[in-house]
From TrEMBL:
Family to which this protein belongs: Belongs to the MBF1 family.
Cellular component terms per the entry's GO annotation: nucleolus
One Gene Ontology molecular-function label: transcription coactivator activity
Biased composition (Basic and acidic residues): 65-82
Disordered: annotated segments: 52-82
Keyword Transcription regulation: yes
Protein name in UniProt: HTH cro/C1-type domain-containing protein
UniProt keyword terms in alphabetical order: DNA-binding, Transcription, Transcription regulation
Biased composition (Polar residues): 52-64
A Pfam family recorded for this sequence: MBF1
Length: 143
């Protein structure tokens, strides 16, 4: 091996250190006990309602009573019977299937089925698309 100089060894000590413990590691029982043994200062603090289920149950009696007293029936508005009849009649006059109409307005066939069965929640954009595709007024149409 010509051209290579003398081989030297580096005898300097190499120190490998662990990274500092994370906040979670400082809080575990093992680390706290080690700190106590070494004489380090430890601050302990009990959190309010720690380890109890008081927060979940407090104040619910008021909400429960209010819910029990509530007589208002909540529900989504559905498509009116006039709209669904007008939609069905206009589609049949154009000799279109639900799938063809759905494809024409870029919606799923299930949307048309829901509108014709009265289960859909009225969406003015979809109703507008239907009116343009069928060339008739579906909302408040008087026959």
């Amino acid at each position: 091996m010509a051209g290579i100089g003398p081989i030297r060894q580096d005898w300097e000590p190499v120190v490998v250190r662990k990274k500092a413990p994370t906040a979670a590691a400082k809080k575990d029982e093992k680390a706290v006990n080690a700190a106590r043994r070494s004489g380090a200062e430890i601050e302990t603090m009990k959190k309010y309602n720690a380890g109890t289920n008081k927060a979940a149950s407090s104040g619910t009696s008021f909400n429960t009573k209010r819910l029990d007293d509530d007589t208002e029936s909540l529900g989504h508005e559905r498509v009116s019977s006039d709209l669904k009849k007008n939609l069905m009649q206009a589609r049949l006059d154009k000799k279109m299937t639900q799938a063809q109409l759905a494809q024409m307005i870029n919606e799923k066939p299930q949307v048309i089925q829901e509108y014709e069965s009265g289960k859909a929640i009225p969406n003015q954009q979809i109703i507008g698309k239907l009116e343009r595709a069928l060339g008739t007024k579906l909302r408040n149409a008087k026959k």
